[in-house]
Design goal:
five-stranded antiparallel β-sheet; 42% helix; three-stranded antiparallel β-sheet
Length: 311
Amino acid sequence: MVDYRQRHTADWLRYLARRGYDAARPLAAGVEGAVYRLDEGTIAKVWSGRPPADLDLTRQVYADIARHPLPFATPDIVKVEEHEGVLVTYERALPGSPFGQDSPVGPEGREVPREETGALLTVLSGLATVPGTEAMRQLTVQGDDRPLWRGHTRFPDALAGLVERAARRHGSLLDAHVTNLSAKVVRAVQSLRALPDTPVTVIHGDLVPPNMHVDDSGRPVAILDFGFFTTAGDPAFEAAVTAAIWDMYGPHAEEHTAALTRLFATELHYDPDTLALYQTVYALATYDLFSPDGSDGHFRWCAALLNRGPG
């Protein structure tokens, strides 16, 4: 399987220096690419695993989001280059600092801090005001081989198709770790197709601590790294996934997921059963994104989530 992670290298620092950015320094790296701070107002992102056409769509999605005022900043691509087959974007630097670094490991306490729940509610409520657009529908989510919405007019049906395709990728591997997997896949697909239509909004799909920037008071001031699971969809899907992945590996991760799921159901008026279904769907769709053999933490996390669900 392709390793989608772009790494920091001295070669990229030399390339950026030749472009006039002598003070470039590594800032962050992950699935979507490696980010370099160029100056106070600009960053460069060296992308991986994304064809040029998809990046053009991402640029359009950023523009679509920017047309709607939000209480936090979102990315803005200023310029795009290609170097030896690798895409480099120059983007406006976003304010604030991340809630956390590296892998999304939540707080050690049994309760999610109020500043975090308040920030999450602000972000989820804000993103839910941005209507889904055609560019968002044309995006391909990470690990899939086609635009999520292709051939579909409803988000639940698009997700059902994604689950079926994901089960065909390495389903036998997942089956060895999840009880009654085939029945769970069938149940998830049937439940998705039974969901009613809802207005679709932008879905970030990867709201983990490093992707949410806050100011000194804990107020969210920027959301970054759209692209991993970005699409147009039911805002309840965003809430469900965020509750599940905000703290994936901390000592009280399951308790935090349950608490955030209850909070989002109450405060944002989402059906708890729909949130649980979307969390199952996320695990079924992303279990094999980081290795084909189940040796990574994300695979084990997905398998554990699926085993906690109905048998």
